[in-house]
Design a protein that fits this description.
Arc Repressor Mutant, subunit A, 3-stranded antiparallel beta sheet, 25% strand
Length: 318
């Protein structure tokens, strides 16, 4: 298990989706299972201790196992996806659970066998828009308000909006929308604002991002407002542009040295570089990166550009 590359491209159908029983553990589990799916496919086994570690939880706690079990049960409740194709057939509407099966056998009781719904995963693959989630940040949240609003912020953080200064943006939700997102049943604006304010304080404590909320009485919606992140060059905000930039500007230069890199075929120290053919390789010649390893590494390099030796001096050890 590689705990260094902890980012996931969470499809916006899931980012926007409403888990019926919104517990923090269920939201974190979606992110972690998406992370595992990206590497292993729809069906995979994972050690219970590894799953707990990916969730930022104590692996030896009985309470941890109970919380994971509760979260897995929640994820077997259906979500909805519209307008996609499956095996040549047009699907107008699908209601299906994200998690099709979670099983522990008597022969292998330290592992959980996970199966994600085949049709739902195919639908998500056809929906190209996604939000990049850093699991290490996500796992720090303790409230459902904090983690849900944080992912909303990541989803819309640089959205262009009219009638506001260019450096500012916002997102609007009705009381009904937020009750679905948080799994609550508040009837009064004041009660919803209490929960939101707790989430915003948690977000600022964890990420230093300041988000303001205001009930827009004329629109009957909650407005979330924040400053956009600074406009960056295309290669810093688009993964394809980033890969092309590295392939043309930093051929055979050290990108990132990793002391404890681990994948399914190798564990040890590597030095990541890009060849003249545009492929990632280990300058130490200790291992060869296959397609899946390279995809994971490119995504990590893209989402952690400040740690790339060729771009910013310094060595990052994870």
């Amino acid at each position: 298990m590689d705990f260094g590359l902890l980012t996931v491209k969470k499809n916006n159908a899931l980012t926007d989706g409403n888990i019926p029983d919104r517990k923090v553990i269920a939201n974190k589990l979606v992110n972690v299972l998406c992370f595992e799916y990206e590497q292993k496919g729809n069906t995979f086994k994972i050690a219970i201790n590894d799953l707990a570690n990916l969730l930022g939880m104590s692996s030896n706690s009985g309470k941890t196992k109970e919380m994971i079990a509760d979260g897995l049960k929640i994820l077997q409740q259906p979500i909805e996806v519209r307008n996609f194709e499956y095996k040549g057939k047009g699907i107008k509407w699908l209601s299906a659970p994200f998690l099709s099966r979670a099983m522990i056998t008597t022969e292998d009781k330290n592992y959980i066998e996970i199966k994600l719904d085949d049709i739902l995963i195919e639908a998500l693959k056809q929906k190209e828009h996604y939000t990049i989630i850093d699991l290490e940040v996500s796992n720090k949240f303790k409230t459902k308000y904090g983690i849900v609003i944080w992912e909303m912020y990541l989803r819309y953080k640089n959205q262009k909006r009219e009638k506001v200064p260019n450096e500012v943006t916002y997102q609007m939700f009705s009381l009904e929308d937020l009750n679905k997102k948080f799994g609550t049943n508040f009837k009064y604006i004041s009660k919803m604002l209490e929960g939101i304010e707790r989430g915003l304080k948690e977000i600022e404590a964890i990420t230093e991002k300041k988000i303001a909320v205001k009930w827009q009485k004329d629109l009957k919606q909650f407005g979330f407002f924040w400053k956009k992140e600074k406009e960056l060059p295309k290669f810093e905000t688009d993964e394809r542009e980033f890969i092309e930039y590295i392939r043309t500007q930093y051929v055979n230069e050290l990108l990132l040295e990793i002391d404890n890199y681990k994948n399914n075929i190798f564990e040890g120290k590597v030095a990541i570089a890009c060849s003249s053919k545009g492929r990632l390789y280990d300058m130490y010649q200790q291992t060869v990166f296959n397609k899946n390893h390279s995809k994971q590494l490119w995504n990590y390099l893209f989402t952690h550009q400040n740690k790339i030796t060729a771009l910013k001096q310094g060595k990052f050890n994870f």
